[in-house]
Amino acid sequence: MRILPPLPPLLLVLVACAVSADNRTEIILATTTSAYETGLLDTLIDQFTASTGIEVKPIAVGSGAALMMAERGDADATLTHDTTGEARYVAAGHLVEGRRLMHNDFLLVGPAADPAGAAGITDAVEAMRRVAARGPFVSRGDGSGTESRELALWQEAGVSADSVHGRVETGQGMSATLYVANDRQAYTLVDRATWLTLGNRVDLVPLSEGDPRLRNDYSVYLVNPERHPGTRAAPARKFLEFMVSRAAQRVIAGFGRERLGGQLFIPDVLDE
Amino acid sequence: MSDVGLHQVSFQRDGRTVLDVESLRFPSRSMTAVLGPNGAGKTTLLRLVAGLERPAAGHITIGGERLSRDGAPRTALALSDAVFVRGTVRRNLDLGLALRDVPMAEREIRVRDAADECGITDLLDRPARQLSSGEAQRVNLARALCLRAEVILLDEPLAAVDRLTRRALLDDLPRLLRAAGATVILVTHDREEAFRLGERIVVMVGGQVRAEGARRDLLMAPPDADTAGLLGFLLLEDADGPVAVAPGELRAGPGAGGPQVGFTLQVADVLDLGRQRLVTGTIGGRPVELTLPEKAPSPEKGAMFPVHARSVVRLR
Amino acid sequence: MNDLTTALGEAWRLLLSGDAEIWEIILRTLAISLCATALAMILGVPLGYGLARGRFPGRTLVLGMVNTAMGMPPVVVGLVVWLFFTRSGPFGGSGLLYTPQAMVLAQFLIATPLVIGFSAASIQSLPPALPDLLTSLGAGRWRRLWLLSREARLGLLAAVMAGFGAVISEVGASMTVGGNLRGSTRVLTTAIVTVTGRGEMATAIAYGLILLVLAFAVTLILTFVQQRRDA
After folding, report:
1. C29 — alpha (psi -120 to 50), left (phi > 0) or beta?
2. What ipTM, to 2 d.p.?
C-alpha cells in the first residue's frame, strides 16, 4: 500500500518549473497606460519576443508610478510621457540611455455648447485660462503624464489647480476620465491616441489643439544598472534598441490607421 | 358568554376540502374533546377557531361575535409540538401577555400563578429549548393558561410525552382546565384522552362532524358504526351488517361506572385452520367467533381472552 | 518589512494629522456602505422570509438564482448600473452617474442577494411552527416579523455582516459607477487603487489598514449584538 503521494514526479515538475523560469529571459517594462491601452505596445512586444525570445512584461501604470518603479529598481526599462518628470529621474541617476520614441499631442475637449468659449483658441494656455474661469474640468488626478501636462498648463496660465472652477479628479485612467467628463459635460485634456479611439463614443468635441505646448513626447529609458544591480540591463537594452529600430518605428507609424482612420503616434526616429 | 360556534364553515387545502361543518356549537365554559382519526380535520378546526386560518366559506363566532382577522385574540392555543422562542421559560410565558398588552405588574403575577398551577415554578429560569418532553408540555400548557383567555384550544396535548408524564397530565388536566373557567376545545385521536378530558365529545371523520353531544349520550346511542368504533364500541358482524356493542354492556359487575374500554371473550374452543385459528366463545353471553392470524398469541380454552376494539368479531 | 512599518507610521500620521481628506473618505465610505447595507436589509430580509416560508411555483428556481447572485462579481453589477445611467442609457437624464447615490445603488444590488440568501437560510432553520405560535399568542403581522427576526438574529446579523463586508471591500462597482471623484465619490478602496497607481505604496497600505480596521470595527459591533444572550 502506498500512502505517500507520488513525491518524485511532483518534485520533477517543480524543478522543471524552476528551471524553465530561470532559463526564460524576461524583462519588466514600466509603462504609461496610454501607450498600453491602445494595443500598440502589445503589437510591438509580440514582434520583439518573436525575433529575440525575450519576454516583456508590461506593467501599465501612470507615468509617475512608472518612474517610481524605476527608482525602486522594480522595472528594467520604462516607457513614459512626462518630459519634466523624466528629467528629474535622469538627474538623480535612476534612468539612463533615454531615447525619444514617438510623440502625439493633447487636445482640450469639452461640450459642444462650450460655455467657457475655448473653441478655436489655438493658444492652449489662453484656452485653459478660459476654462479655469468657467469649468467644469475633469482631471486625471492619478499622477500620470497627462495630469502632469495639465498642471503645467494651469501654472503657465497663472491659475492654481485648486482654484479652477468645478475641477474634479478621477484618480483613474484616460478612458474612465473621458467618460466622467462626458457625463458631466465637462472639459478635459485628452491624448490624441485615446481621443481617436473613444472620441466617437462621447458627446464632446475638440476645442483647442495644435499648440506646441500640447505636444506629448513618449520616451524609453533603461533603468540604471549601476544603481540597481538586480535589473536585467542586457535584454532591456535590446528592447530599447528594437523600439527605435526601423521595423518598430514603421509599426508605430502605421498603428491604428486602418482601424481608426487617424495616426495615433508619430515615430520620432523615422522622422530624423 | 364565550361559546364557540361554526356556521357553514368549509376549508380547503390544495383544492381539497378538508373541513366541511354545517353547524357546530361549543357551549360556554364546556370542555369538549374532538375525537377522530388522523386527517379528520380536527387540527384544521382548531386552527380556524384560533384564527390561524380563514375559512373558505362560512364564519366562526365566539360569544356570538364573528371572528375577525385583526380583532384582539380571544383564544389561547397550545400547539401539539411545544415550540418556544429563545430564552427562558419565564420569557416564553411572558411573551403572550406582553403581546396582549397586559400591564407589567399583572404579567408577573399571572406567570407565577400559571407556573405554580402547572408545577413548573422551578423551571422558570431554565432555557425553554432545553426541557424534557414532559416539562415542555407542562410549560406549553402554562403558556396557554396564563393568557386567561375565554377559549382554550389544546391540540393533542399528550401526543409527544412519555407514558408516566401522560398519566400525570391526564390526572392534572381536568382540574387545571376546569379552574381556568374557559371554553375548552381539545383535539385528540386517543379515545382515552377524549373520555377523560371531554365532558362533551365531537366525533369527526373525513372533515365532517359525525356525532356530537354529552359523553354519556353518545355512549348510549352512537349514531353510526364509525362513531361507535371510535368511541370504543366492539363491532360485531351480523347477517344484517355490523352491530355495535358498547363496552359498558359487556363489563358486567357493580361499580364499573363510566365508560370502560376493552372486551373479554370467554373462550369455548380454538380450532387450528392452518394459517389461521378460529376462536369461538361468548362476549357478554352472546355467542361469537373470531379469526386470529397464525402469529397471534393463542388463547387457552376456558380462559378470558382480551379482544382489541378494532377486531372483527362475528355473531354466531 | 520596511514598507509595512512605513505604512503603519503613515496610517497613524494620516489619522492623527487631522488630514481632512482621509477623514472625509472614511466617513463617506462608511456612509455609502452602511446606507447600501441598510437598504439591502429592508428589501432582503422580507424577501428572504418570503422565500423561506412561501410556497409558490418556481420557488426553488428563485432560490437558485439568489444563490447564484450571491456570487455575482461586483464589477459586473457596476457595469450594468453604469450602462443604465450613462448619458445614452435608459436613465441617462437622471444625472445620477458618478454620484454617491449611484454607488449606494450598486452596492445595494451587490448586498441584496447576500442578505436574501442568508436571511432565507436563517428563517428556514427556525422551528416551522414558530410563526403560528406567535400569531396565536397575539402577534400581528409586523410584530411577528420583528419577533421572528429576533429569533433568527444569529443568521440575520450574519447576513448584515456578509452584505456589509462585501460592499465595503468592493472596488470594481464603486470605481465604475462612482468614478472615484476626489471630494465626492472617492472611497477607501478606490483611493487605494489611485494611490497605488501613483506608486505611493506606503499610503496605499495605510489606506488598506484603515479599511481593515473599519470593517473589523463594524463587524465587531454586529458580532457583539449577535452573541448577546437572551434576557
Report:
1. alpha
2. 0.76
